[in-house]
Amino acid sequence: MPIRVLLVDDQPLVRTGFGLILEPDPEITVVGEASDGREAVTDTRRLLPDVVLMDIRMPGRDGIDATREIVSWARTAEQQVRVLVLTTFDLDEYVVEALRAGASGFLLKDVPPNELTSAIRTVSEGAAIVAPTVTRQLLDRFADRLPSLRGPKGQLGQLTERERGVLELLARGLSNVEIAEHLVVSETTVKTHVGNILTKLGLRDRVHAVVHAYETGLVTPGGNGA
């Protein structure tokens, strides 16, 4: 089955441009277009896309608020809907909020066509397309402007001491291989720890694990740990 995509942008020419890029791909089909966040939420419930290609800044209801509601609804309705946000700037405080709202990653609007289709495939499979190191750069740069980037440390009480250590290393941008080398364990063991962390904390992927580490104060902007 082709990957069903909903295009969301307040500019018709932008939606048309993305449609022209995506429609020739036999593995992707554009099922609809929305011009703002309100339409995005309504059309997502009606059309059930696999991926919502979401602009962040739109008049009326913006992409962050729409992403939050879509992700919440999809979880409740047990629908596999992923949100991939678009931005004009690669380091934008709105991107941080979009990730916190549940987006599975972000792209620049001038992304090459092959990278756009590749990202849609990646996100539709349940993975994130933002490397943890990039997420950390975003958080380090903008977390001090976002007081909402704090949550109760008690949520980390579900983790073992080793799992907390792995989460901190994830938040520092280390890959599974690097974490394995740092802890002197196998990569398979690290993958098991990461899986346990995501399950216990109810997180979807590594990107949101990094965000969660900041929210709970396990790591701090510009630092290695709380």
Q: How would you characterize the overall build of this protein?
A:
The structure is a single chain. The protein has 226 residues and is of the alpha/beta class. It folds into two domains: 3-128, Response regulator (Rossmann fold, 3-Layer(aba) Sandwich); 142-215, Winged helix-like DNA-binding domain superfamily/Winged helix DNA-binding domain (Arc Repressor Mutant, subunit A, Orthogonal Bundle). It has helices spanning 12-22, 37-47, 63-77, 93-100, 113-124, 132-142, 161-171, 176-183, 187-201, 206-215; strands spanning 3-8, 28-34, 51-55, 82-87, 106-108. Strands 2-1-3-4-5 form a five-stranded parallel sheet, sandwiched between helices. Helix 3 packs parallel to helix 4 (93-100), helix 7 (161-171) crosses helix 9 (187-201) and helix 7 (161-171) packs across helix 10 (206-215).
CATH topology category name of the largest domain: Rossmann fold
Average pLDDT: 85
| CATH top level assignment of the largest domain | Alpha Beta
Radius of gyration: 18 Å
Organism: Haloactinospora alba
Keywords: DNA-binding, Phosphoprotein, Transcription, Transcription regulation
GO molecular function: DNA binding
Pfam family, one: GerE
